Amino acid sequence: MSIAATGSSAANSKYAAIVIDANTGKTLFSANADSRRYPASLTKMMTLYLTFEALSRGKITKETRVPISAQAAAEPPTKLGVKAGGSITVETAIYGLVTKSANDAATALGEMLGGSQDQFARMMTAKARSLGMNGTVFRNAHGLPNTGQFTTARDMATLGIALKEHYPQYYGYFSTRSFTFGRTRMPNHNRLLGRVKGVDGIKTGYTRASGFNLASSVSDGNRRIVAVVMGGTSGASRDNHMVELIKKYLPKASTRGKSEPLVASAGGTSFNVLNKLLLPKKDAPTPDQRPDTDAAVAEVEDSVFVSEASVQAYANPTPRPQINIEQKIAPQEKVDPVSTASLNKSGWVVQVASSPSRAEAQAFLETASKQAPAVLANASGFTVQFEKGGVTYHRARFGGFESKSAAWDACAALKKQKISCYAVQN
């Protein structure tokens, strides 16, 4: 793979990569960084994030025993191999994840922290949303194949930065070269540790569907970058490409210290259903409840708002058409009409979703149109591009409403069809 993402990497539909300056948050390199990919064992970064969170809050200690259920014991390799009914300490489980990428230990941690693997996956997705990982859905704690589990290279870089910023007291686990379990010495799967100066983690991953993945954190004096490579055709080519990226972009990173964290500290994870994971933190205005101020409208409007109608669309992880995320964005919002119908771009509109992917925003419009054809018969779908936190998003909206009441009535009707939305003046 070349840094320019030409040749074999350009022909590889699984390939994605990103390099982020961990001091400034600036994207130094990107290729398909917002395209949907399978995380494989990079999933365990979130399992560890929630484990570190529980440790920091005193809910567990490093010596807390983690029960090994029949389901955990039955997970396929790689694993520690503890029999059902046994247990390991939290710290042993952590070492198992960061070195051997143990699937049984990941499942056991998830079951202990979440009560069940399904509930833990909901917690993982909720945490992803609160960290700004808007293109990620988790279905399990280990990353073994699941068609509904997906992420992006940008989201994995965000998680890598969050792990270091939020839990520096535990981050050293990622640089563990090996640990001994019973009589077995288990080396770290990350072969860049000790090979490339400054690499201090984070995680490798592989399934047949994902290809070879790697997230790396690298520091050199005052410079620090987090880089992610996904979809490598082999472990060696993935590692070599990561080395290329580090050599080229670490010297270009800023030497100044951070004035503030790049990833806002996340809140709780007490969500019960996936629908709640995909909604903004603040209630959107509805026909029977309006925000108190214009600022409240703006806060809702700039949330990554994912409609209930799009939940099923998320279950299909087929990569969307690639987006050139390095296009220069004009300061004003860009409007991309989905249809050629006459469109009133002023006045009142109904927004049903917002996504980092324009193709996904358009898919939300199509889903809503099919699910509620009568409500949207005279409306025209379009996307509006805006930037927030250095990331480009695309609002999915329907226009053509003659008045505020018409837009609010349409939104109320959509909600009866289980399509989350809000009405706003364009």
From TrEMBL:
Belongs to the peptidase S11 family. Keywords: Carboxypeptidase, Cell shape, Cell wall biogenesis/degradation, Hydrolase, Peptidoglycan synthesis, Protease, Signal. The keyword Heme does not apply. This is D-alanyl-D-alanine carboxypeptidase. Substrate binds at K203. One of its GO terms (biological process) is peptidoglycan biosynthetic process. PROSITE patterns: SPOR. Residues 342-426 form the SPOR domain. One of its GO terms (molecular function) is peptidoglycan binding. InterPro entries: Beta-lactam/transpept-like, Peptidase_S11, Peptidase_S11_N, SPOR-like_dom, SPOR-like_sf. It comes from the Bacteria. The active site is at S41 (acyl-ester intermediate), K44 (proton acceptor), S101. It comes from Borborobacter arsenicus. The lineage of its organism: Bacteria, Pseudomonadati, Pseudomonadota, Alphaproteobacteria, Hyphomicrobiales.
